[in-house]
Write a structure and sequence with these properties.
Chain lengths: 112, 115
């Protein structure tokens, strides 16, 4: 059984640029959630996708957007990057909207 | 609104000693409560969870936690610390009956285990 995989693992961008992070969900899982973990803090919920539709969103501006594909993989897009966007971005998949979350190892984004 | 408070950003214990990591929550309705562990450069792994039923919950790696409604607490314990327990631990809450599995995390406690 393949777990949750994320890419890239590390990346560096400059302010104003755009970034796309990718997540492959665990086999059989149809729901993907994204979390932002700033240094020294707990993860914060960005949004969740269930069967290709957004199902809940945290307190993040519209420049944070996402997609879920028919194979249930997902992308997180962030436009107009700001320094405060530097963080570890975690993807978690689950079977159903209320299923147990299984986390990937994250993508660490540094914005200079 | 729900929130989670973890007392102590760092906890240091000797190998073999009791581990106690504190978590208090605020929730207007009965919560679902979780403990996750994060090892360096890794994602989060579920240690244990409380949803309903028995208030003493046993998890992986010898950890357990007790839900105390009167104290709004969900402290994590392990009788004897092992060097491999050194990691960051996060307490989280999700309101029961929510339509999506959105977790609200505390700020974490880093456990250091001294030889």
């Amino acid at each position: 059984e393949t777990g949750v995989t994320q890419s890239p693992t590390h990346l560096i961008k400059t302010r104003g640029q755009q970034v796309t992070l990718r997540c492959s969900s665990q086999s059989g899982h149809n729901t993907v959630s994204w979390y932002q973990q700033a240094l020294g803090q707990g993860p914060q919920f960005i949004f969740q996708y269930y069967r290709e539709e957004e199902n809940g969103r945290g307190n993040f501006p519209p420049r944070f957007s996402g997609l879920q594909f028919p194979n249930y993989s997902s992308e997180l897009n962030v436009n107009a990057l700001e320094l405060d966007d530097s963080a570890l971005y975690l993807c978690a998949s689950s079977l159903g909207r209320n299923g147990e979350l299984f986390f990937g190892e994250g993508s660490r984004l540094t914005v200079l | 609104a729900q929130s989670v408070t973890q007392l102590g950003s760092h906890v240091s214990v000797s190998e073999g000693a009791l581990v106690l990591l504190r978590c208090n929550y605020s929730s207007s309705v009965p919560p679902y409560l979780f403990w996750y562990v994060q090892y360096p450069n890794q994602g989060l792994q579920l240690l244990l969870k409380y949803t309903t039923g028995a208030t003493l919950v046993k998890g992986i790696n010898g950890f357990e936690a007790e839900f105390k409604k009167s104290e709004t607490s969900f402290h994590l314990t392990k009788p004897s610390a092992h060097m491999s327990d050194a990691a960051e631990y996060f307490c989280a809450v999700m309101r029961g009956g929510d339509s999506s599995y959105k977790l609200i995390f505390g700020s974490g406690t880093r456990l250091l285990v001294r030889p």
